[in-house]
Write a structure and sequence with these properties.
By secondary structure, the chain is α+β, with helices and mostly antiparallel strands. The chain is built from 2 helices and 4 strands. The chain folds into 2 domains: about 40 residues; about 35 residues, no CATH class.
Length: about 80
């Protein structure tokens, strides 16, 4: 009977240690994810489409002769018409 109690005690102690390690790892993962999400992004320059006036990030715009356009279609329309 004493051996069974000793075995159950060791099993309970092993489970408790496993539980502590698992929770510690989860907390570390959570903190790591929070730090990664908290990093600020560099602001994106906003430009205006010369054809329609839409404002959009420069990284998504199409450039032609120092002018910005929201799409290749608007770039072609602007370049194909006479300007004053």
């Amino acid at each position: 009977m004493g051996g069974l109690i000793r075995l159950l005690t060791w099993l309970a102690l092993g489970y408790f240690l496993w539980y502590l390690v698992r929770n510690y790892q989860r907390k570390q993962d959570s903190l790591r994810n929070q730090r990664n999400q908290a990093k600020p992004r560099a602001p994106s320059l906003i430009v205006k489409c010369k054809q329609c006036g839409l404002h959009l990030p420069q990284s998504e715009a199409v450039a032609e002769d120092n002018e910005w356009f929201c799409s290749n279609d608007h770039r072609r329309l602007w370049l194909g018409r006479p300007h004053n």
